[in-house]
């Protein structure tokens, strides 16, 4: 009976992640700085627009209006350029990280004792070198840059809102409890679900590979029916694992989306009440 290759636990994953971040400390700092500058440039637009409205209400000259409009256009152009450079550097950094991870993976695979590989079987190793590496590639190429962008933008946006008006900034955190509760629920069940999914695919890959390699022996011994039942069982298990992870996503994704939209609606209601009562202008 084949034995699965070991799976890194949480502390080991965090240790490897910290080592990777230390290795790319300067490029990561540059990427974060570019995203921060882009977010700051984006926050200047609403501030200038509000100033323009207030100046027009109080009465101002056309020269002042032109100056504010030019500044607004300049910040929009600056935000566009900074965002482009920030995203470009994010993707370049993610490709460098993935290249390093791929090299480390191949080096560790080739360093495995032959007896370990034979006990694990071809399915687990093939699954890790294909499906697992592809998942890691998507994470490094897309998830990490998007997470950096979202984190920097969120921190600066909330900070700017608090700086302008602490009372008006309250709706910014309305969706936070929903995100925390939903994410904690998701993280409680997601690791086991995705480990089950990967293990199911590894088993199915091994079964199919063994069946193909031993096709003549299977025909000679009349084991075709047994192999078909084995493959059907593996497919059923993989399907159940996919349904499990799909269920987790169908619960968590809408929860996060609601928490994302809720602050917008809350800001309109809360801001309208503040203005109507004279607590904000």
Please describe what this structure looks like.
By secondary structure, the protein is mainly α. It has 2 domains: 1-164, ABC transporter transmembrane region fold (Up-down Bundle); 167-281. Helix content is 88%, strand content 0%. The chain has 7 helices and no strands. It has helices at residues 10-23, 25-58, 62-110, 114-164, 176-213, 215-221, 224-276. Helix 5 (176-213) runs antiparallel to helix 7. The longest helix has 53 residues, at 224-276. The protein is elongated. The protein starts with 9 loop residues before the first helix and ends in a 5-residue tail after the last helix. The mean pLDDT is 82.
- H/E series, N to C? HHHHHHH
The average pLDDT is 82
Total number of distinct structural domains: 2
Q: What is the CATH superfamily label of the largest domain?
A: ABC transporter type 1, transmembrane domain
Report the radius of gyration as a whole number of Å.
27 Å
CATH class of the largest domain: Mainly Alpha
What is the helix content?
over 70%
Reported CATH architecture of the largest domain: Up-down Bundle
Distance between the termini: 73 Å
Strand count, sense and closure of the main sheet? none
Number of strands: 0
The CATH topology name of the largest domain reads ABC transporter transmembrane region fold
What percentage of amino acids are in beta strands? under 5%
* Overall outline: elongated
The total count of helices amounts to 7
User: What does the oligomeric state look like here?
Assistant: single chain
